[in-house]
Specification:
elongated; 0% strand; disordered N terminus; 12 helices; Serine Threonine Protein Phosphatase 5, Tetratricopeptide repeat; mainly alpha; 75% helix; 208 residues
Length: 208
């Protein structure tokens, strides 16, 4: 029994020394290995890895940004916002952090805050179609319809295959009785892989 206890103590000491030898870069790379390019396949584990990285290197905006994504993947919006806040504090030109925080504000209905963030995103990245689309959605929700339409148009001009922008612009026109453009947008979105608006418009006899 004594030998077993000693062996276990040795193993634990070895494992702890190994854990201590991990650098912030090591933990960050472990987290990134769990990403499919858009989200984390195991966000819980990614949060653990990125938190370990932050303990070792607390002034890296990219680590906070990626942990914010992991929290967002879990629907934990407040911790995600806090991490995006920290990323922006460390790197005020971090356009992706402004964009991601704006999408969360849209998700939780804080549309003016979303607009403020998308404004910053498009200042930093003037050709970011998704930021224009996100801002258009927020304007739409606040009843600022002309501004919403301008942003949907801008998003489509920048990214002609942007299905969601066609859908939201299609809704704008169909709701105002403009079936020509509305149906075109619904059909275009369907060609790009999202047929929800076209199916709905056909059910209501808006589109052939």
């Amino acid at each position: 029994m004594r030998k077993i206890i000693v062996s276990i103590f040795f193993i634990l000491t070895f494992l702890c020394s190994q854990a201590r030898s991990e650098t912030a870069v090591d933990w960050f790379n472990k987290a990134i290995a769990l990403s499919d390019g858009k989200k984390f396949t195991d966000p819980h584990k990614a949060i653990v890895y990125l938190s370990n990285a932050i303990k070792l290197q607390s002034n890296d905006a990219e680590i906070y940004y990626n942990r914010g994504i992991a929290y967002e993947n879990l629907g934990q919006y407040q911790p995600a916002i806090q991490d995006y806040n920290q990323a922006i504090s460390l790197n005020p030109a971090y356009s992706e952090a402004f964009y991601n925080r704006g999408t969360i504000y849209n998700e939780i209905g804080q549309y003016q805050q979303a607009i403020d963030d998308f404004n910053q995103a498009v200042i930093l990245q003037p050709n970011d179609a998704e930021a224009y689309h996100g801002r258009g959605f927020a304007y739409d929700k606040l009843g600022q319809y002309q501004r919403a339409l301008e942003d949907y148009n801008k998003a489509i001009n920048l990214q002609p295959n942007y299905a969601n922008a066609y859908i939201n612009r299609g809704i704008y026109f169909l709701s105002r009785g403009n079936k020509t453009i509305g149906c075109y947008d619904a059909q275009r979105a369907c060609v790009l892989g999202n047929c929800k608006l076209l199916e709905m418009a056909k059910e209501k006899s808006f589109c052939p």
